[in-house]
Amino acid sequence: MMVKDWARKILWTLHLDVTRNLRYDRLTWKVMQAHLKPHSNVIDVGCHKGEVLEWILKFSPKGKHWAFEPLPHLAQHLRDQFGSRVQVVEAALSDQSGKTKFQFVKDSPAYSGILRREYTTDTPNIEELEVAMSTLDAQINEAKIDLIKIDVEGGEWGVLAGGAQLIARDHPLIIFEFGKGASEYYGTTPEKMWTLLSDWGYEVYDLHSYVHRQQALTEAALSLAFSTGGEYYFVAASRQK
Is the pTM of this model over 0.90? Predict the structure, then answer.
């Protein structure tokens, strides 16, 4: 285990969330730890360097797992790192298939996505690539999916809409990023996200509320979190579970 992993585990144990991202990491770990079983099957959309995928493999070593990563060098890194334990798909996910332009933010790769969004600098170093685009429903049909994690810098509504059949079939737990500064560039509003999930019979929580078994968010609470930036990571849980 790398030094930074030891440091993070110590901070997690002490609940010293020195950054919001560290808090989100700790809570995401807890959600997965509580939900996943050894044979659970998981989809990681926007896998990046595979940090969350390592947690998935820890909790579900006997499951089938898919990692979607459109950037060629990161997809190859995932293949080299995880081998046959994970099926790496070098494609962006949305609600349609084909080819798409993809914005590779070379100085901040984690901000890369299909469309441009707000960035931490006024002059991001962006290379526009053409990548394959697909849908969850076109890619996954042979296994029951227990959990989907989505981190796609604003394109999460399209990922969900493109997996409507899978989600209706399996009712997986969904961990997803959704925040102002990214999602609105795709035309996604809190109302649009709420309608999609509630029509499928899902309730929405922020990570803390889900981990501590508190009440689900209302539509107004989700809208407030979005507009203020109070939270940008959420859990959607099916009422049928």
Answer: yes
